Amino acid sequence: MKEKGIVVLYALQWIVYHIGVIISAPIVVGNALGLNPAEIGKLSQLTFFLTGIASLMQIRFGHGGLLIEGPAAPWWAACVILAGIAKEMGRPLASVRTDIEGAMIVTGLTLAVLGSIGLIKWARSFFTNRVTGILLMLLGLQIGGVGIKGLAGGGLKLFIIGLLVLLMVIYLTLHGRGLLKNSAIILSVAFGWLLSFLAGEVVMPGGSAWFSLPPLFLWGPPSFEIGSVVSFLLLGLLLIPNVVGSIAALEAATGERLPLKKYDRGLAVSGTANFLVGVFGGIGTIPFAISAGLISFSGNKSPKPFILSCVIFIAMGLFPPLGALAGSVPQPVAAAVLLVSGCSLAIIGLRDMVREEITLRENFIIGLSLLSGIGVMLLPHSQWEQIPGWAAGILSNGVIVGVLGSILLEHVVLRKPRQTVSQSITGKAGHN
Q: What is the domain count for the chain?
């Protein structure tokens, strides 16, 4: 009995540690995609369900480690960015939702195939620290802009509440300890929701059933708009190092090395999970590196609490009232969380970019890539009216333009001598 109690306690710790990140994603994405509170509730329900399913798939068929596979900040940032571009170009947000479904189906299948044929080592060497750093920096800058607009878009009362939420997240993150620190986001969102409720700014959806299975294609039959597909496919490839990094963090936390085939299996299952995301209509996932932090913090490596927490996540996805509660969070409160996430992404990207010595060559790669991406973000939407829709979907996305520019500069225009590249790849392979 005592052992069962400890398993339950550690399972709850897994949930509390990760729920802030998981619950934030549907709130932010839902508001960006123009969903009403009831629809955001459905997306929240689906997010819990898919997180539990994908995490169990990883431990059974994938890398086999204790890593929650959940909604990734770069994925939901990409959804927010696509929605912002669509608004500026006059495209209906309903089309963007089905575009995301189609793009996730294609991307998930691609990642699953890459993992199945064992190409992860090649992909790691192709996407250098600079390329992934530029990706994260541009994502952070762009979602930061969306966050500022969201914070200021709900009136004076909600603007003040959003600022208080932002300050609370910062304070708890800097000064909190243990679970208080790890729950900074969800505690702050709950605080913001309470203030908004007292201010009469919360709309609670009603009439939902107590139990329901998530439907397939939540937003309608998927559409395969070429700009969205290319954007998500490129982002999926750029997130391969993030998958690798999360597994490496797990190794560091447990002190156990995993064979390279486990990395490939992890990528294959992550791709399969993202295919399911497209089929259901959810938000893209990757293994959470923060899970390794919980293992280091608690010292518990037992799979039983992890598996129980995944089962609880699935159960949370089967009860709509929980999703409806999450969907009632006002946009400025969610925008405050978006600013925190954008800040984190930008700083992680900065660290990746400067991890290696910056010579004149690296100066041009980083500078030109960032300037081109930011420059595109600042262009008016009228700039793309005379360009075919599929091309506008790519060229109007500053993140994609900047990352494509960095890849071309890194591997084509300013490519290092062949001997240097070979030595770099050999070194990475030897490390793993």
A: 1
- Phi and psi torsions of 225, nearest 5°: -75, 125
Write down the pLDDT at residue 422: 43
Question: Has residue 310 got a pLDDT over 70?
Answer: yes
CA separation, residue 374 to residues 4, 340, 412 (Å): 53, 20, 22
Instruction: Look at residue 385 and tell me whether its pLDDT is greater than 70.
Output: no
Q: Which two tokens stand for residue 91?
A: 């495209």
* pLDDT average, residue stretch 355-376: 91
Range of the domain at 25: 2-352
Using an 8 Å Cβ cutoff, are 54 and 221 in contact?
no
Domain contains 102? yes
Q: Name the most confidently modeled range: 23-27, 65-69, 205-209.
A: 65-69
Two tokens at 282?
Answer: 């959810």
pTM score, whole prediction: 0.72
Domain presence at residue 373: no
- The pLDDT value recorded for residue 136 is 78
Assign 371 to helix, strand or coil: helix
Please say whether the beta carbons of 342 and 137 come within 8 A: no
> Residue 177: inside a domain, yes or no?
yes
Task: Judge whether residue 425 has pLDDT over 60.
Answer: no
Contact 330, 153 (CB under 8 A): no
The arithmetic mean of pLDDT across residues 186-205, rounded, is 84
Number of other CB atoms surrounding residue 233 within 10 Å? 16
Between the alpha carbon of residue 268 and those of residues 86, 206, 310, 312, the distances in Å are 31, 39, 19, 24
Mean pLDDT of the chain: 82
Question: What is the end-to-end Cα distance of the chain in Å, rounded?
Answer: 41
224 conformational bin, left if phi > 0, alpha if psi -120 to 50, beta if neither: beta
User: Is 62 domain-assigned?
Assistant: yes
Q: Are 355 and 129 in contact (CB under 8 A)?
A: yes
Neighbours of 389 (CB within 10 A): 12
